[in-house]
Structures are given as C-alpha cells and as structure tokens.
Write a structure and sequence with these properties.
single chain, 314 residues, mainly beta, 10-stranded mixed sheet, 18 strands, globular
Length: 314
C-alpha cells in the first residue's frame, strides 16, 4: 500500500553561560599561617558586646559563571533576592547551515528548553524510576517565569579598550535586557506550571522510544535527572530557524548576531522560589517531522538540537 512516510528530525541548540554573582578567588585556608600549635587559656568576657548587622554587597560581576540563579526569594533576615538571566544560543557544528526541503512539509512537533537542576539520587523504586531530592532551591512558592527573545547584543570584548579586554557585565544591568525584549513570551503554554505558576519538579525525566509511526512506546530510551523543561512557541522557532536565510545559520558568529539570546525574567513578588541551575548544560531541542512523499515505507526518526551560553542579571 502506498502511503506517506514521515521522517522525524531534531535540531539541538545550546545555552552559553553569561552572568550572576562572583567572589574573590584569592583566599587562604584558615589557620594555614598560624605558627606553632600551643594551647591557650581563655577567660569568659562578660563586659564586652558584639554588634552584627546585614550589609548589602556592592555591584558584582555576574557574567560567565558556571552556576547561576533564577527566581525570587524573600529571606526574613537577609531580605529579598530577585535574579533574572540572559543566555546566548549556539548551534552544534553538526546543526550549522541546515537544509530544509519544504516540498516535504516540515512541521515542528515540539520545542523543549531543558536546564538541569542540582539534585541527588536517593533511591530507585520497584519500576526502576530514580527518586531524587533537589538541591540549592530556596522558598516554596510558585514563580511567574517568562522567557523572551533578547534584543541586546552581548559582546565578548570591551569596545572601550579597543577589544583588548573581555567585556564585563554586572548584576545592576538588568535594564539593558529588560528594555530590549523582543516580541511575546515564548513559554506561552496554557499549562500554568510552564509560566505563571512555575514550580521545579523533582521527578526523573523518562524518555521513551518511538515506533515506526513516531508514537511513544513503553520502552525506555533514556533516564535523566530532574530538570526544567519548558515548552516554547513553535511558530517563533519555525520562523527563526526554518525560514531563516542561508547566511543566518551558516556559522555561530552569524547565528548569535541573528538571535542575540534568550532573556529569563521572573515577576517581582513578596515571596517565591530561588533556584540555582546548571545553565551550562542547558539546551533547546526542536523536534519536527516531514513527509517523504507517496511511497511504501516506515517512519524514521531524526533530530536537530541547539545549545546556549547564559548571562544572569540580578
């Protein structure tokens, strides 16, 4: 019997890390410079008093950090912390300069943004599913999370030094990105846990194999630690990737000029949740299918991915 066979592909996009909080790398081990190991006698001092208080830090460099924060959290002692994030995107070399045959009617099935949480596997249940606890997450309220295309061009080198020094970004520069958002919210699913009521999920991510009709089976292809998984707007990525002119996707230099990055923004609130995320391991996966015409055959899977480079303004 003649019928249309479908080929499924994935485009990967990677996230590149850019900004959040830095600390002094010059340090000494406490006690390393103390001479001798004599024991001293001390007496209880009841006449002196010690005053302790919280003092906010000044502006700090926040780009190119391996671990970044995202969210809002109101600590009863230290006050409120709110962290947004910006990341550049890059294409793996295998995905550069993709060729799409529009006579095969390529159609996007899904666009999934994935960023791992820090977690620890504590056990495995009877079905083989891993049980995890999440680490470095503060607060217990949902956050209103929005993802936009960024219109601000992130620079590798500082133009004021004739490109002799690396460009530095600081945690007080959020307006650079907030004022340069492009278009509508990309995580626009009707599922509120994907945006306005986002809560990190501690469940293991199970990826199932697909049959020759591209339907999921019960067979497990892979098991992944808990991670943020946001469904992004398919029309946006179809226009940006599939309908892009050839020069836009030919190299990562031209790609980063074309799509300057993504801006993760959390809405200010009295309370919420602050998350440390492994943005350096983040990616966007575009899954699409296309028809090979009228012929007898089976459905063959293929893939296209995208990577990214992150920046976090507080």
């Amino acid at each position: 019997m003649n019928k249309k066979s479908t080929f499924k592909s994935i485009i990967p996009i990677l996230l590149l890390t850019l900004f959040f909080v830095a600390c002094d790398k010059d340090f000494n081990t406490i006690g390393s410079n103390i001479i001798d190991d004599n024991h001293f006698g001390f007496e209880l001092d009841t006449l002196s008093s010690t005053v302790a208080f919280v003092q906010p830090t000044s502006v700090v460099q926040t780009n190119n950090l391996p671990i970044n924060q995202l969210g809002v959290y109101n600590n009863p002692v230290f006050g409120k912390t709110k962290a947004n994030f910006v990341t550049q995107l890059t294409l793996p070399s295998a995905s550069l300069n993709p060729k799409f045959d529009f006579t095969l009617n390529p159609t996007i099935e899904s666009v999934i943004l994935t960023i791992p949480y820090f977690s620890k596997k504590t056990s495995t249940d009877a079905s083989g599913t891993g049980i995890y606890t999440l680490d470095s997450i503060y607060g217990d309220k949902p956050v209103n999370l929005k993802v936009y295309e960024s219109g601000y061009q992130i620079q590798d080198y500082d133009a004021s030094t004739n490109a002799q020094e690396a460009q530095i970004y600081y945690n007080n520069q959020d307006n650079l990105f907030n004022n340069n958002k492009i278009g509508l919210i990309l995580n626009d699913s009707i599922d509120k846990t994907q945006n306005t009521e986002f809560v990190p999920d501690d469940k293991e991510v199970i990826v199932h194999k697909r049959d020759n009709l591209l339907k999921e089976t019960n067979d497990v292809e892979s098991r992944l630690s808990p991670r943020m998984r946001l469904r992004l707007n398919k029309a946006y990525f179809y226009n940006k990737i599939f309908l892009a002119s050839n020069d836009k996707l030919i190299s990562n230099g031209s790609f980063k000029d074309y799509i300057k990055g993504l801006y993760f923004q959390v809405e200010d609130a009295n309370d919420g949740r602050l998350m440390k995320l492994n943005f350096a391991a983040g990616n966007i996966t575009i899954t699409y299918k296309q028809y090979a015409g009228l012929k007898t055959g089976t459905l063959n899977p293929t893939t296209f991915d995208d990577d990214s480079n992150p920046t976090t303004p507080e």
